[in-house]
Automatic annotation (TrEMBL):
Phylogenetic placement of the source organism: Bacteria, Pseudomonadati, Pseudomonadota, Alphaproteobacteria, Rhodobacterales
Keyword Disulfide bond set for record: no
Gene Ontology MF annotations: 3'(2'),5'-bisphosphate nucleotidase activity
Enzyme Commission code(s) on record: 3.1.3.7
InterPro entries: Inositol_monophosphatase-like, Inositol_monophosphatase_CS
Group of enzyme by EC: hydrolase
Domain of life (superkingdom): Bacteria
Keywords: Hydrolase, Magnesium, Metal-binding
Family membership noted in the UniProt record: Belongs to the inositol monophosphatase superfamily.
UniProt protein name: 3'(2'),5'-bisphosphate nucleotidase CysQ
One Pfam match: Inositol_P
SUPFAM superfamilies registered for this protein in UniProt: Carbohydrate phosphatase
Keyword Acyltransferase: no
Length: 263
């Protein structure tokens, strides 16, 4: 069994990839979750079952929070928690996109301390430990220093519309999109894109791992009110995410409309 938590997460993430690839582009069974929560495939459930067993056997005293496991209150009484998205970007997985992956994190006292995001189709493993930097396939990564007027931001179209910006002035940035929030954060971490944002309430399992990876790479990651993200909340959501290199993050945060409505 791997020794450190980061080794454990990395091993588990690659094992998740092996399972998911067995279903990819093979018409896996798909169901819709209640209350419009999105689709879930048999691959999501198979990966979740493996991870829950593997990680619980390795760290039986850790709490558990996963998109595909019914949540409870037990995790709130534990010192450390696994925060897991078995497949982040399920819609992309169903569509045959390359941009889905597995997001695994360990949280302690509300902070992510270890994280792994694995993108199986691209064979990319992003990793980070608190205070030790971030890496892509073992090589150190860092965000860009691109100024606002030249920046390319990852996010949905609605986030770059006037209601969310002071005086209705949308920042002069280019926009593109990837389906996985964890991957978006990693793409900011490694400098592939300059920033990412979402003004929707964001589930912890979507962002915990990517948030640490981006932070350890040197980006600033906050919620939409420019507050530090906290995890293992009783209701496991945070109010949106903004991530970018320090100067770009400051420029974007300064332009946000206070008291944003939610798309």
């Amino acid at each position: 069994m791997p020794g450190t938590d980061l080794d454990l997460l990395s091993t588990a993430a690659r094992a998740a990839g092996e399972i998911a690839m067995g279903y990819f582009c093979k018409n896996p069974a798909v169901n819709d979750k209640p209350d419009g929560a999105g689709p879930v495939t048999e691959a999501d459930l198979a990966v979740n079952a493996m991870l829950e067993q593997f990680l619980a056997e390795a760290r039986p005293d850790y709490g558990w929070l996963s998109e595909e496991t019914e949540d409870g209150t037990d995790r709130l009484g534990t010192k450390r928690q696994f925060v897991i998205d078995p497949i982040d970007g399920t819609r992309g997985f169903i569509e045959g996109s390359k941009d889905w992956g597995h997001a695994l994190a360990v949280v302690e006292d509300g902070r992510v301390i270890d994280a792994a995001v694995f993108m199986p189709v691209r064979d990319l493993l992003f990793t980070a430990s608190a205070g030790k930097g971030a890496a892509r396939n073992g090589a150190p990564i860092q965000p860009t220093q691109t100024p606002l007027e030249d920046a390319t931001i990852l996010g949905a179209k609605i986030n770059l519309t006037p209601p969310f910006w002071k005086d209705g002035q949308v920042p002069p940035v280019k926009r593109t999109f990837r389906s996985s929030l964890a991957y978006r954060l990693c793409l900011v971490a490694d400098g592939s894109f300059d920033g990412m944002l979402t003004f929707r309430p964001s589930w912890e399992w979507d962002i915990a791992a990517g948030a640490l990876i981006a932070t350890e790479a040197g980006a600033i990651v906050t919620d939409q009110a420019n507050q530090v993200l906290r995890f293992n909340n009783p209701h496991p959501q945070v109010p949106g995410v903004l991530a970018a290199g320090p100067k770009l993050h400051k420029a974007l945060a300064a332009r946000l409309e206070p008291g944003l409505s939610k798309p």
